[in-house]
Fold this sequence. Notes:
With 377 residues, this protein is of the alpha/beta class. Helix content is 27%, strand content 27%.
Amino acid sequence: MSPFLLGPLVVGLISSVLALVISITDRIVNDYGEVNIDINGGKKILTVKGGSPLLGTLAFQNIFVPSACGGRGSCGACKVRVLSDVGPHLPTELPYLNSEEVARNVRLSCQIKVKKNIAIELPEALFNVRKFKTTVEQIRNLTYDIKEVYLRLSDEAIAAGGISFTPGQYAQLVVPPYGDVKESVQRAYSMSSTPQDREHIELLIRLVPGGIATTWVHQYLKEGDPVEVVGPFGEFFVRDTDATMIFVAGGSGMAPFKSILNHMAQTGQWTNREIWYFFGARSRRDMFYLDEMADLERRFPNFHFVPALSEPKPEDAWTGPVGLITAVLDSYFKEKIGKDKPMEGYLCGSPGMIDACVKVMTANGISQDKIYYDKFA
C-alpha cells in the first residue's frame, strides 16, 4: 500500500479507537442512574436520569428556568437555590452571584450536574411555564429598527388553553442555528399582546447590531416560519394598589406597557388610577404607536401619554416635549403630576435609562421599593 494512503488510514483508525474509548468511559463514569429532584420541600419530586446539567434536566421535565444563553453560563439568568450538597461554587458561576446569593447556595442551574438526589427551591410560577410551538402570522415594521412579530400558537397549544400570563411578563424566543450561528440560543422579550388573546404572542424586537436573535428576526425570519417560544416569566406587573402609576420606556421597552394598557382597555382594570406614560426617543423616526396611545388618552381621562424627543429634526415638526426623558419626567413631577396620592414607578429600557429614572423618581417622592423595572441591554 502506498505510504500516502497508509498514513491517513492509521490516523483514522487511531481516532476511531479513541472515540470509542471516550464513549465507553463516558458511559461508565457518568452513569449516575436514576436520581430524584425534590422541588420546594416535596411539592414536586422528579425522577430523572442523572448526569446532565440541572437546567436541561428540568427543561426535559417541562420545568423551564429562565435562561437567555440557553445554558452556556454566559447570562447568569438561570439561578436556582440548591438545598443539598452539590459541591462548591464553580468559577463560571461566581461572576453572576452576589455574596448573599453565594451564602444562600444560589447556583446557576446550567453549571451544576445532577449526579445524585438533589433538593432545590424554585418560584412555583415556573411550574406554569411551557414551551409553545408557534407560526409567524405577521411581521410589521414599526420603525426602521423595530419589528412587531405576531405569533400564532399551534392548534394543539390552543386546544390546551393557549398561553396564560400577566401583562408585563416576558417570554423567551428560541433562535435556531442559522448562518454562522451553530447553536440554538434563547433571548427574552416582553410580550406586547394581552392575556385576553390566548392564541397569540406578540413581541417587539429592535435590531441590535451583531445581535444573534435580533439579526435572525430582522434578516431571516419571515411570515409562515415555525418558531418556539418559552414562557411566561418575570415579576414585572402592575401592583394591586390605588397609587398613581408612572410608566417610563424607550424603544422596544414599549412592549410591556402596550400589554398593560390594552389589558386595561379590554377589562376596565386600573381605569380608576392615574397613569402617566413617558416615552422617550431621539427623533420622530424612533416613535411608534402614537395613534394607539392617543386613542387610549381619549377613552380614559386618567391616562396621560407624554412622548418626548431628545434630538428632534427640523423635518419632524415636533411640538411635544423636547429633552432627555429624565428631564421631561422631572419637569412633569414638579409641574403637572399631583402629589395627593402615593406613586409607583414602572420602568422598561436600558440599564442606563432605568438607573437615571430611578434617581429622578426617588428625588420626587417615590421610594425605591415602589419602583419596579425590567432592564434589558
